[in-house]
């Protein structure tokens, strides 16, 4: 069935270093790939997204790359800061008939070491 | 952006009972979804709440266990029926608007 795989499940990086989280998807028709950040006890919040007509998108310290041929996409956070500590989820759109839905990866718990 | 209000925000329930969660959006939205997030886990789609027709359930979720209503374009309810401890989760309402998926704050259910 449709699924999104995400790794690593946990990631610890030194403050100021970069963090990379990778995801793969199974549905070749997927055309929308959002990334969500969820802090403890809070709702998931969209931090960046990319659509299938572009290969890379950047917003300040956050960037996302997409390789449609290989069906994988990645989140890159540079110059990490303590407030980047959270759980990050990748997701992909799945088209089912006339409707679309968003399926999430298993999540990555990112810890920033001071 | 869409503002989503969910209630209750949390509840403690007894085994065998049912609880209805309400989701109110501040604007009309076509697509509304219900997700479940078990402790320490990812978000799993339960169903798409369709206005004026039966919800579309994902594999592993059935209408008898999770009946959903969607009477209009701003409101939906999810009922968790005949609860067991395995139903202890956060249930999140979400809507598609302005090109992204927004989430409510979630309803944390604990089943004893």
Can you tell me about this structure?
The complex is a heterodimer of chains A (114) and B (112). Chain A is 0% helix and 61% strand. In chain A, strands 2, 4, 5, 9, 10 and 11 form a six-stranded mixed β-sheet that branches. In chain A, strands 1-3-8-7-6 form a five-stranded antiparallel β-sheet, with no helix packed on it. Chain A has 114 residues and is mainly β. The relative contact order of chain A is 0.33. By secondary structure, chain B is an all-beta fold. Chain B contains no helices and eleven strands. In chain B, strand 4 and strand 5 form a beta hairpin. Chain B is globular. The chains are: A mainly beta (114), B mainly beta (112).
Keywords for this entry:
heterodimer, A: 114 residues, mainly beta, five-stranded antiparallel beta sheet, 11 strands, B: 112 residues
| Helix/strand/pairing category of chain B | mainly beta
Tertiary shape of chain B: globular
Instruction: Write down how many β-strands of chain B occur, each being a DSSP E stretch of 2 or more residues.
Output: 11
Largest sheet of chain A: 6 strands, mixed
Give the helix level of chain A as a range of percent: under 10%
Question: Approximately what portion of the residues of chain B adopt beta-strand conformation?
Answer: over 45%
User: Which class best fits the helix and strand makeup of chain A?
Assistant: mainly beta
Distance between the termini of chain B: 36 Å
In short, what is this structure?
Chain A has 114 residues and is mostly beta strands. Helices cover 0% and strands 61% of the residues of chain A. In chain A, the strands form two sheets. In chain A, strands 2, 4, 5, 9, 10 and 11 form a six-stranded mixed sheet that branches. Chain A has a five-stranded antiparallel sheet with strand order 1-3-8-7-6, with no helix packed on it.
């Amino acid at each position: 069935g449709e699924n999104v795989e995400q790794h690593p499940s946990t990631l610890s990086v030194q403050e100021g270093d970069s963090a990379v989280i990778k995801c793969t998807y199974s549905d070749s028709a997927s055309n929308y790939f959002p990334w969500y950040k969820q802090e403890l006890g809070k709702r998931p919040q969209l931090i960046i997204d990319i659509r299938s007509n572009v290969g890379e998108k950047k917003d300040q310290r956050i960037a996302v790359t997409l390789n449609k041929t290989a069906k994988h996409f990645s989140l890159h956070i540079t110059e990490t800061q303590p407030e980047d500590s959270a759980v990050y989820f990748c997701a992909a759109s799945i088209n089912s008939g006339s409707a679309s839905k968003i399926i999430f990866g298993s999540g990555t718990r990112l810890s920033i070491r001071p | 952006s869409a503002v989503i209000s969910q209630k209750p925000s949390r509840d403690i329930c007894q085994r065998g009972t049912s609880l209805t969660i309400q989701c109110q959006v501040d604007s009309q939205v076509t697509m509304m979804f219900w997700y479940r997030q078990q402790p320490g886990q990812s978000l799993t789609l339960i169903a798409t709440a369709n206005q004026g027709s039966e919800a579309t359930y994902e594999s592993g979720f059935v209408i008898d266990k999770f009946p959903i209503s969607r009477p209009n374009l701003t409101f939906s309810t999810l009922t968790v029926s005949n609860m067991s401890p395995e139903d202890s989760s956060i249930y999140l309402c979400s809507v598609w608007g302005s090109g992204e998926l927004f989430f409510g704050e979630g309803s944390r259910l604990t089943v004893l």
